[in-house]
């Protein structure tokens, strides 16, 4: 029944009971029973002509997710300091398995127009935040990811050879940050650093996001220093 919730995405924001039955390979009566029970607890809502969408209880659950997120619990003051110091948006990005999501955005003086906001899955191999997160993976999980999604990585401009792919992310890990320029959205640049765990993995990545037109006038070295220092401070508080 909970698998019904996984059927909703950017291409299917509503579903009918018939859609659900076909997608889950269950009978139509079973599909209607799932829908009825999910409606009762607010995880689905009826929107039009026997179409169903995700329900209001998910908004409530999202509120609790934000309150429980360890990075947000200790990191928000640091993010606000970054925004005050630069005027740029500061974004928190986290990895959940092979899915990368923005979990928070602290607005700057002139907020950027972002196609990927909280909850919308980001491309795994494009942009500063996903790359600094991937760079914290150990060799075995990185190789597993490479084998599973090599073609996607190549389409995003990454090496198709495992040794080169590993060296690419080892260089990012050594640098401790990554600067992207128009990789995900052509008008945007970002400087990102990982919030590291004691085991070398990452809690999250934090990024300063700004218009590429500002690249000619911003002090990138200062931006890198600010973002890496902020990530270190948040990581220290989490430790």
UniProtKB/TrEMBL annotation:
| Source organism | Pseudacidovorax intermedius
Report domain IclR-ED positions: 57-239
Q: Example GO biological process term?
A: negative regulation of DNA-templated transcription
Stated name of the protein: IclR-ED domain-containing protein
- SUPFAM superfamilies, alphabetically? GAF domain-like (SSF55781), Winged helix' DNA-binding domain (SSF46785)
Q: Which InterPro entries match?
A: GAF-like_dom_sf, HTH_MetabolicPath_Reg, Tscrpt_reg_IclR_C, Tscrpt_reg_IclR_N, WH-like_DNA-bd_sf, WH_DNA-bd_sf
Q: Give a yes or no for keyword NAD in this entry.
A: no
GO MF terms here are: DNA binding; DNA-binding transcription factor activity
Q: Which UniProt keywords apply?
A: DNA-binding, Transcription, Transcription regulation
Q: Which SMART domains match?
A: HTH_ICLR
């Amino acid at each position: 029944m909970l698998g019904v919730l996984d059927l909703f995405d950017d291409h299917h924001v509503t579903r009918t009971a018939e859609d659900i039955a076909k997608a889950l390979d269950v009978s139509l009566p079973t599909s209607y029973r799932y829908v009825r029970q999910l409606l009762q607890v607010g995880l689905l809502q009826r929107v039009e002509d026997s179409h169903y969408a995700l329900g209001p209880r998910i908004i409530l659950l999202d509120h609790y997710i934000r309150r429980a997120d360890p990075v947000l619990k200790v990191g928000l003051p640091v993010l606000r300091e970054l925004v005050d110091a630069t005027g740029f948006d500061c974004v928190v990005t986290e990895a959940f398995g092979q899915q990368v999501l923005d979990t928070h955005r602290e607005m700057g003086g002139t907020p950027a127009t972002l196609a990927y906001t909280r909850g919308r899955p980001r491309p795994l191999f494009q942009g500063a935040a996903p790359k600094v997160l991937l760079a914290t993976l150990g060799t075995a999980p990185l190789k597993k990811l490479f084998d599973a999604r090599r073609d996607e990585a190549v389409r995003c401009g990454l090496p198709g050879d495992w040794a080169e792919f590993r060296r690419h992310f080892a260089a990012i890990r050594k640098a401790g940050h990554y600067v992207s320029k128009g990789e995900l959205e052509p008008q945007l640049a970002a400087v990102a650093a990982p919030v590291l765990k004691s085991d070398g993995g990452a809690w999250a990545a934090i990024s300063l996001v700004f218009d590429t037109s500002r690249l000619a006038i911003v002090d990138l070295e200062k931006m890198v220093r600010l973002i890496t220092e902020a990530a270190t401070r948040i990581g220290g508080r989490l430790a």
